[in-house]
Amino acid sequence: MKGALTRFRVMAYVVGVFLLLLVVAMVLKYAADMDGAMKVVGPIHGFLYAIYLVFSVDLALKLRWSIKGTALVLLAGTIPFLSFWAERKVVEKTAQGVPL
Asked: How far is CA 10 from each of CA 47, 66, 74, rounded to the nearest angstrom?
């Protein structure tokens, strides 16, 4: 279970950082008409988000999260800064032994 939590934590941070980079790339694309960053960061974020989903579901199954808790954690990788908050909540709840 410790390995699953570590994998989730790493991917939550990585996805969070790439989501912020994606926001910057979108601003560059639409405000400065520079779509090069979007072509690079977009697919990378998509790939990493897919890995985040797999690791999140793995952890959810091992910790017996509710469907609602699992869905909220899965969506956290789509809203800037939310994956960082979700990672903290998951770690807190796991340390307390409370399922999401």
From this structure: 15, 22, 14
